[in-house]
TrEMBL record:
<keyword id="KW-1133">Transmembrane helix</keyword>
<dbReference type="InterPro" id="IPR006680">
    <property type="entry name" value="Amidohydro-rel"/>
</dbReference>
<dbReference type="Pfam" id="PF01979">
    <property type="entry name" value="Amidohydro_1"/>
</dbReference>
<feature type="transmembrane region" description="Helical">
    <location>
        <begin position="7"/>
        <end position="29"/>
    </location>
</feature>
<keyword id="KW-0472">Membrane</keyword>
<dbReference type="InterPro" id="IPR051781">
    <property type="entry name" value="Metallo-dep_Hydrolase"/>
</dbReference>
<dbReference type="InterPro" id="IPR011059">
    <property type="entry name" value="Metal-dep_hydrolase_composite"/>
</dbReference>
<keyword id="KW-0812">Transmembrane</keyword>
<protein>
    <submittedName>
        <fullName>Amidohydrolase family protein</fullName>
    </submittedName>
</protein>
<feature type="domain" description="Amidohydrolase-related">
    <location>
        <begin position="270"/>
        <end position="475"/>
    </location>
</feature>
<dbReference type="InterPro" id="IPR032466">
    <property type="entry name" value="Metal_Hydrolase"/>
</dbReference>
Length: 519
């Protein structure tokens, strides 16, 4: 008996050692990197139809000259090539500006899991709505990483979209910050605001990402002082003050589809109580939708229009919640681009939770009501002149880098936007918001050559944004073969054992992730 026990212990020890060696090896195993295509001094796109996203007109049979990174000539007559030019045949093709996704979340593995898919889908610019504190995080990335990625785009050393604005970590009050972090990140009182703003100014951040549980008095001081540091506020509407107050205090953009529903029903003040707002919300979702006050909503929308306050509805997140119980939705072909770690440890929990909520109620679920109501409010806001930006909330459940932006454009048209307005929400409107319309947003001489060559006209059917023939990023051309390579690269990376080990360890080791899940 003693010998059997000793033998059993030895076997267990060997198994544990092998597991440790295997996991350690997988974690340390280097991951291959993508190489961008060759850059050319001059690129000519011949005989292409140019989409003007300002007017909705199409200039047919145009010739476009790109020198290095910028468009230098657009003409209806043929441009004579010289040696070492890249010639792109644009016959029967349509040229539009590169698309921007204005609500994303990047992490330490985006280089393999997200960036290739953005470019493959014609998404050349993104706004990352996450960040770091005073230490590099094992999971989230910060301004230093993103600014380096931008430099690498300029030098054609990396396959990545542009990161058009830099975000702080999400400011959500004391509970959202690890205990060991400097106190000023916790924003327990207004006296900590200057320290926070100075820190992020030094980090070359453009905006402070505000979240739901930020104390009202601290938020007010933060909103008033941020412009003094060259920063603005963007993100959620904090629960403990009204949308009207937040707009008047200068928050530049609001995220997600629920902002008007939180405000426009008779008991809205009950959602502004710091002690029990979550409990009230969970039991009152149906009431929030059914008692929606459209007159009050239109007044708020008009205020946003007057103050040039932008809205990113991220309809994909509500669409997921509404459809989590539908097999045709959850059996998405793009799941092959997502690691098993994320699918099993994050998305499965989220899917099961929402599925159970949806099927426990007969008829239309509350989540479905929220989704449909949000689309109606997008239509209202658009008519009231609220600038709307396309955003998806990568990496939330069933939101796929690149692919989901096309779905968001489609849902925006289902919400009442025209095909042109949907295109504007991902091109010229984000460029205006970011104050870089001089370089981006529409096709013109002097603009940066971030472009998408399409096989079909998206002004006729917005789903034609998926019909991608090629992509230009900073004047570098990704042809059809290269775009296929990008997708295959991410599919291989997502399914690999070593990438899944790295993803798991980065999640477990991240103090920022731990407090987010605890909260």
């Amino acid at each position: 008996m003693k010998k059997k026990l000793i033998y059993f212990i030895k076997v267990v020890v060997v198994i544990i050692l092998l597991a440790i060696i295997t996991i350690t090896g997988a974690y340390l195993w280097p991951i291959s990197k993508l190489q961008p295509p060759k850059s050319f001094g001059k690129t000519i796109i011949e005989n292409v139809n140019i989409i003007d996203v300002k007017t909705g007109t199409v200039a047919k049979h145009q010739f476009v000259l790109i020198e290095h990174t910028r468009i230098t000539k657009i003409d209806s007559t043929k441009i004579t090539p010289s040696d070492d030019n890249l010639i792109i045949d644009g016959t029967d093709k349509y040229l539009m500006p590169g698309l921007w996704d204005m609500h994303t979340h990047s992490n330490q593995h985006s280089e393999w899991l997200h960036h290739p898919l953005y470019i493959a889908n014609g998404v050349t610019g993104v706004r990352d709505m996450s960040g770091q504190l005073n230490k590099k995080d094992s999971y989230w990335v910060g301004s230093k990483e993103r600014l380096q990625w931008n430099k690498d785009v300029g030098n054609n050393k990396r396959v990545t979209p542009r990161y058009v604005l830099q975000s702080s970590y999400q400011m959500d009050g004391e509970k959202a910050i690890p205990e060991e972090s400097p106190n000023f990140f916790k924003l327990q009182n207004p006296s900590q605001v200057d320290s926070l703003l100075q820190f992020y100014k030094n980090e070359q951040v453009d905006f402070i990402k505000v979240y739901q549980q930020l104390p009202k008095d601290t938020y007010k001081v933060l909103a008033k002082k941020a412009p003094e540091y060259g920063l603005h506020l963007a993100g959620h509407k904090p629960m403990f003050l009204s949308l009207e107050e937040a707009v008047n205090l200068g928050q530049k953009s609001f995220e997600h589809g629920r902002i008007f529903m939180y405000e426009c029903f008779p008991e809205a003040d009950s959602l502004k109580n710091p002690t029990n707002w979550k409990a009230y919300f969970s039991k009152s979702k149906a009431k929030i939708v059914q008692q929606f006050d459209s007159v009050q909503a239109k007044e708020l929308m008009y205020l946003m229009h007057q103050k040039s306050t932008y809205w990113t509805p991220t309809l994909q997140t509500l669409k997921f919640e509404a459809n989590a119980h539908i097999e045709n939705f959850t059996n998405n072909e793009n799941l092959k681009y997502v690691t098993s770690v994320r699918k099993k440890l994050w998305w499965k929990f989220d899917t099961d939770y929402n599925k159970e909520k949806n099927i426990e109620r007969e008829g239309i679920s509350v989540s479905e009501q929220f989704f449909e109501a949000s689309k109606q409010q997008v239509a209202m806001a658009n008519k009231m002149g609220v600038p709307i930006m396309a955003g998806t909330d990568v990496t939330d459940s069933y939101v796929f880098a690149g692919f989901s932006l096309h779905d968001e454009l489609y849902e925006l048209t289902r919400s009442g936007l025209s095909n042109l307005e949907a295109l504007q929400s991902a091109t010229i409107t984000p460029a205006k918001f970011s104050n870089i319309e001089e370089d981006y947003g529409f096709i013109g001489i002097g603009k940066k050559a971030d472009l998408v060559v399409l096989n079909k006209n998206p002004l006729e059917d917005i789903r034609n944004t998926k019909e991608i023939h090629g992509v230009l990023l900073n004047g570098v051309y990704y042809n059809k073969e290269k775009l296929t390579e990008l997708k295959n690269f991410t599919e291989t990376a997502a399914s690999s054992f070593h990438m899944n080990v790295k993803a798991l360890i980065s999640l477990v080791n991240s103090p920022l992730i731990r407090v987010q899940f605890a909260d």
